[in-house]
Amino acid sequence: MGVEIRVEGLTKAFGSQTIWQDVSLTLPAGEISVLLGPSGTGKSVFLKSLVGLLKPNRGHIWVGDRDLPYLPESQLYETRKLFGVLFQDGALFGSMNIFDNVAFPLREHTKKSESEVKRIVMEKLELVGLLGAEGKLPGEISGGMKKRAGLARALVLDPEILLVDEPDSGLDPVRTAYLNQTMIDLNAELNQTFLIVTHDINTARTVPDNIGLLFRRELVMFGPREMLLSSEEPVVRQFLNARRVGPIGMSEEKDVSELEAEAKMGMDVGKLPPIPPQQMPTTGRIRPAQHAPGAWCAAHGVTPPPGSFIDELGRNWVEEWPRYVAAMSSPVGGHQIGGPQIGDQQVAGQQQPPGARY
């Protein structure tokens, strides 16, 4: 089971340069959260602060009942064991094969026998689909395989919290989609708390339970996926639409004169795209943290963008969800080969569940 992280009034600066200030959010236990933001807004700095590699200037990071920035060194060391980290480039040791890379934390931080180390390493490699590649060096495998090897190493100590820094960096869209599916499946199986930093809009729109956006040294918004994807905040709409028009500029934010000029020309950040169905585990089973499509919008009186929650087969998942839940809960439907039937379509197995890509 994952651990809740509560961030309260967190501020980080390097000298006179403030990276972000007064950031407050809660990463719910066992849920997948995504952090977005333009380049240079301090997303990676935020991850390093969460794990205690950087100390904030002020504020609190509660990991369970421990306030990370104020822990003595011995307790900080123990608390870090709750975390697994997947770095942008995988951060593999180039002179070690994949097996030894994944085994490194076990050999460094535990007293397990080599037979136990081998069992755990092979289990994690199987979990990320790398069985058979354990003898290869990092230079002999693809970028996507490096990311999965880094993920296996991040998982090898069975952390309760997984921090993932730009998993799409250097990967093509297909490998990014496969890695996203792997993380969804891991969360469904292990129920860990995930925080994923990404620039990939498709990842942000389909994978997480919660989304946050950093901009202008502040956390603009953080909350359930549907809250951000239906937001009328100009910076949110600009980012989701990947448009040049709006408050985000080439360096960071635009000044008042630039925004006024855009307004006079009648330029806007565009309409919000439809909210897609959330991606499901490959088994088709519902993750514990997953909510019914459209539930947040309905509860808060928000009208989602037109076309929301409709998948590539034309199914409206606000309507289909109750039938899907009932089918998954039934003794027959939840265990039959290929998954439950919804309408005339099979939604697991050969026909994929909502949001799935494979």
UniProtKB/TrEMBL annotation:
Name of the protein: ABC transporter domain-containing protein
Statement: the UniProt record of this protein carries the keyword Nucleotide-binding: yes
ATP-binding listed as a keyword: yes
InterPro entries: AAA+_ATPase, ABC_transporter-like_ATP-bd, ABC_transporter-like_CS, P-loop_NTPase
Spans traversing the lipid bilayer: none
ABC transporter domain mapped to chain residues: 5-241
PROSITE patterns in the record: ABC_TRANSPORTER_1, ABC_TRANSPORTER_2
Region (Disordered): 335-358
Keywords, sorted A to Z: ATP-binding, Nucleotide-binding, Transport
Biased composition (Low complexity): 342-358
